[in-house]
Known about the structure:
Layout: H1 17-20, E1 31-33, E2 39-41
Antiparallel strand pairs: 1-2
Bound molecules: zinc ion.
Organism: Streptomyces musisoli
Protein name: Small CPxCG-related zinc finger protein
Amino acid sequence: xxxxxxxxxxxxxxxxxxxxxxxxxxxxxxxxxxxxxxxxxxxxxxxxxxxxxxxxx
Length: 57
Ligand SMILES: [Zn+2]
C-alpha cells in the first residue's frame, strides 16, 4: 500500500469564462485540449498563468 503511486488526473484549470466568451480558439471554454488529451488554459484568451516564473530561457 503505497500512497502516491496512484496518479490522479490533473483537473482542468479554471479559466475565466468571461474572457473566453468571445474566443474563437477555445469556443468559449477557456481551455483547449492538447494532443495528449490534457486540458490547458487557452493561450488566446486566458491570461498567462506564468506569474513569478521566469519562462524565458
Ligand atoms: Zn480562448
